[in-house]
């Protein structure tokens, strides 16, 4: 089994390291043709407008939609969550538009712009060490979306079938439990 990390911008090396800790193989995805080699794809944090722009430039939009249509698993963290969402609250055009969620960018107030916390997540025995950096919030979810965690009543982890998202960065700590959860999702699909 092989997991790809979209390597257009953002925390790519950290995700690769976290996936490898689960025992699965991980590669950086720089060309859409590489999607054929992988079973699951992580879209990292960074800056969603930039990632969206680069995805359009390098022809990733349709390629990733096709990847998803095959039922292959996707995991978006922070900006990656925004890129996967069907609705962006500011009225900005969506990017991949694959997950039935509404997101608000940079939604945590100023003094909470960046912080770390231990976050209980449905389906995991231990809380996840979560790093929030100018993080987005999920403001609303469609009926088929499962909310996996909230922080101060705001939705920060969710799953819709084969798509998993987190508002925070799970790859910036030594805790790889959410990556393990994703690898298990990919394994079940395979
Ligand atoms: N604030 C960024 C955005 O709106 C996301 C931040 C992140 O990925 N750490 O795209």
Question: How many domains make up the 3D coordinates?
Answer: 1
Q: How many DSSP E strands?
A: 12
Neighbour order of strands in the largest sheet: 2-1-3-4-12-11-10
What is the distance, rounded to the nearest whole angstrom, between the alpha carbons of the first and last residues?
A: 8 Å
The distinct ligands, each listed once, are: glutamine
Please name the fourth-level CATH homologous superfamily.
Class I glutamine amidotransferase (GATase) domain
Q: Would you identify the CATH architecture?
A: 3-Layer(aba) Sandwich
Number of helices in the DSSP assignment: 5
**CATH topology term:** Rossmann fold
Low-confidence stretches: none
Q: Write the element-wise H/E pattern from the N-terminal end onward.
A: EHEEHHEHEEEEEEEEH
Overall 3D geometry?
globular
- Class in CATH? Alpha Beta
Largest sheet: 7 strands, mixed
What is the mean pLDDT? 96
The share of residues in helices is 25-40%
Q: Measured on Cα atoms, how large is the radius of gyration?
A: 15 Å
| Portion in strands | 25-35%
- The structural class is alpha/beta
GO molecular function: pyridoxal 5'-phosphate synthase (glutamine hydrolysing) activity
Subunit structure: In the presence of PdxS, forms a dodecamer of heterodimers. Only shows activity in the heterodimer.
Active site: 78 (nucleophile), 169 (charge relay system), 171 (charge relay system)
Catalytic activity: L-glutamine + H2O = L-glutamate + NH4(+); aldehydo-D-ribose 5-phosphate + D-glyceraldehyde 3-phosphate + L-glutamine = pyridoxal 5'-phosphate + L-glutamate + phosphate + 3 H2O + H(+)
